[in-house]
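explain this:

___
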Amino acid sequence: MHYVYLLKMNDGCLYTGVTNNLARRQSQHGHASSTRTTRFFGEAPMLYHEEFGDLKSALKREHQIKKWSHAKKIALVHEDLLQLKRLAKRKV
């Protein structure tokens, strides 16, 4: 299994990543000294994740989400499908 996940950084930004071990990666991000991202931005709670059967699919989804606006990522975290559809139609 592979996972795409979103973390909320201390500055409010959302970090999108991929892992094959969600618990280990969450633990790594939970310690400010263990990853480059959390070293710079502090501990990061995991807000959302999706599961994929293969790495290729997970990387494709990660790439898709990384191109999204902050508002669209928040709608995904809250599973607000109506807002996701609204934001998908916007030209930003």
Remarks:
- The chain has a mean pLDDT of 87.
- The chain has one domain: 2-89.
- The two ends are 33 Å apart (CA to CA).
